[in-house]
DNA sequence: CTGGAACGGAATACTTTGTTCCGTTTCAAC
DNA sequence: GTTGAAACGGAACAAAGTATTCCGTTCCAG
């Protein structure tokens, strides 16, 4: 794992290499978020490096995708843990959603899933992520501000909805996503509203994405 | 243009051909909705016909995509016009959204756009669609049930959000989409709610999808 | 000076896929 | 019954795209 701005304190070519580490990962994130099926050469082009620089660091495309996805999953975990430290169960919940949407974590995880064979560790992390999210929902419910018929899996619906919003400009994308998120949170917190239609989403109903897509 | 169940009254091979007309279009819709980049052979396989049956009807892949997209656009127009016949501006608005979401018209139009060069007629239809949607929003606003800071382009946000929800089973997909739509409509109708964040979506902000994607 | 780490990018090998082509089946008209 | 054309299935073909390898070059640390 390379920490950000690891290039500090290095000189010459070592420094350049460390910079490339970041540039490649950042470019991969940007390119693969735009289209998970992008050719690996686009990543190199976007990072301003040759293909070799990529293959020196990752054994192949899969490994890069896997890393990217796992990083997203870790980000999700970090945000969830940070949110759980918030004494207010409601702001913990809404703040978590906002930060996850802003970071586009959903695209990094769910939309990249299926493009590689996941490691057992990722499975464990995903499970833990589910537990943390459950805690967040429970604590939000305890505040009494959460609509009665909202279940854990509704988080997936919310994140999926927000991640779908996309315009060419990244900053504007974030703004528009926040607009949608505001609407959804607004509705989610309507304790007196009429029941939502249909059976609520069930556990595992969105796991199909993690199946290997050929 | 072929009307549904055109096969009635025909016999023998003519009948089979008319049936294939439908099978091919239906399969194309299903396959390309699942993934707009699907190979054309998947469509044939799904329809249970050979490739020739496809090429007898359409000069190429583009033409099939174009037809599918244009059909979706026409469906949008039809639903909008039907909704405008409703004397109640609010149920006209919500009913329109529901039917468009149920029919997955958004995927049919926006998500297929960019995979072909559009005809001038499609441009004209798209423009008219925009005007009709504007009317629907205006009439909804006139009822006083529409949140003040909702603009026409918010419809795009709503449809995009709903279209993003997808699980393997189509019927279940519809249910879950209705759940999200219920949340969004719920919030959209909160006349007393705090303002939504950020500048509202602008006209033409989603037109980028119609640019040819290579 | 110099050996090797790091790299750029052409070349390769392979897969995918749109389209064509041809032999075959089927049916309606004579 | 004969037949000719509509309709079709699917192999064959051609073009494109792309993951990966390979080799010559650059640059620095020791």
TrEMBL record, chains A, B:
One of its GO terms (molecular function) is DNA-binding transcription factor activity. Pfam families: TetR_N. InterPro entries: Homeodomain-like_sf, HTH-type_TetR-like_transc_reg, HTH_TetR, Tet_transcr_reg_TetR-rel_C_sf. Signal peptide: none annotated. Keywords: DNA-binding, Transcription, Transcription regulation. It comes from the Bacteria. Residues 39-58 bind DNA. Residues 191-214 are annotated as: Disordered. Residues 18-76 form the HTH tetR-type domain. This is AcrR family transcriptional regulator.
């Amino acid at each position: 794992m390379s920490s950000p701005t690891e290039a500090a304190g290095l000189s010459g070519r070592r420094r350049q290499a460390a910079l490339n580490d970041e540039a490649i990962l950042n470019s991969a994130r940007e390119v693969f978020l735009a289209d998970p099926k992008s050719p690996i050469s686009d990543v190199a082009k976007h990072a301003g490096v040759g293909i070799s620089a990529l293959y020196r660091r990752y054994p192949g495309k899969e490994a890069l995708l896997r890393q990217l996805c796992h990083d997203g999953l870790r980000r999700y975990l970090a945000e969830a843990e940070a949110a759980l430290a918030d004494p207010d169960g409601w702001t913990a919940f809404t703040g978590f959603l906002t930060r996850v949407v802003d970071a586009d974590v959903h695209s990094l995880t769910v939309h990249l899933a299926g493009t590689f064979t996941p490691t057992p560790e990722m499975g464990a992390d995903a499970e833990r992520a589910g537990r943390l999210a459950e805690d967040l929902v429970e604590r939000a419910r305890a505040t009494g501000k959460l609509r009665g018929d909202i279940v854990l899996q509704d988080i997936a619906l919310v994140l999926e909805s927000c991640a779908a919003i996309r315009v060419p400009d990244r900053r504007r994308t974030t703004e528009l996503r926040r607009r949608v998120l505001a609407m959804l949170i607004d509705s989610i917190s309507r304790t007196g509203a009429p029941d939502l239609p249909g059976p609520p989403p069930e556990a595992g109903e969105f796991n199909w994405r993690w199946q290997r897509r050929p």
